[in-house]
């Protein structure tokens, strides 16, 4: 699919709002009807970058070796106003996650997509905890050989905050 041809996002199965009525999270379910519900839950953070897609591809390889797993794909947008969130959350989040969802769906893996607003690292870790995920998968923007020991600030903060294992894909 080229960048000019975008599919229509699916209808959300869940909407969450904050205390002022602002849309803060949309959830889309891509669980095949054959899914058992007792899979190990993983969360992968996706921002639309090539690094994030590489992390999804690596997770798919890993998932083929696991007995059963369920993937929660999350995209975190910075805070939007109440009015902007009504359309902005999906207008920004879907293009950033569409390719990742396509890769996972093509393999027949059970997944849920979460488009949410907030501070990225904190939101990723909080959602993983809320969903009972055993692992978080994040891509890392490689900066070159001399900076190879460095990680991006969001990745580093996820590692610091997460009580569960974090898989960093370079």
TrEMBL record:
InterPro entries recorded: Rossmann-like_a/b/a_fold, Universal_stress_UspA, UspA
Gene3D superfamilies, alphabetized: HUPs
Source domain of life: Bacteria
Residue stretches making up the UspA domain: 43-170
SUPFAM superfamilies: Adenine nucleotide alpha hydrolases-like (SSF52402)
UniProt xrefs under PANTHER family: STRESS RESPONSE PROTEIN NHAX (PTHR46268), UNIVERSAL STRESS PROTEIN HP_0031 (PTHR46268:SF15)
Family of the protein in this entry: Belongs to the universal stress protein A family.
Name used for this protein in its record: UspA domain-containing protein
């Amino acid at each position: 699919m080229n960048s000019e041809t975008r599919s229509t996002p699916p209808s959300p199965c869940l909407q969450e709002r904050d205390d002022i009525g602002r849309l803060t999270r949309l959830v889309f379910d891509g669980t095949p009807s054959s899914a058992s519900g007792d899979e190990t839950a993983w969360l992968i953070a996706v921002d639309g970058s090539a690094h994030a897609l590489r992390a999804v591809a690596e997770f798919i390889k890993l998932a083929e070796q696991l007995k059963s797993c369920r993937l929660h794909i999350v995209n975190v947008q910075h805070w939007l106003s109440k009015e902007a969130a009504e359309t902005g959350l999906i207008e920004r989040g879907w293009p950033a996650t569409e390719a990742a969802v396509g890769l996972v769906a093509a393999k027949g893996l059970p997944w849920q997509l979460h488009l949410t607003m907030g501070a990225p690292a904190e939101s990723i870790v909080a959602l993983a905890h809320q969903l009972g995920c055993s692992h978080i998968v994040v891509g890392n923007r490689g900066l070159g050989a001399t900076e190879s020991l460095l990680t991006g600030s969001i990745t580093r903060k996820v590692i610091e905050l997460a009580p569960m294992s974090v898989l960093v894909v370079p």
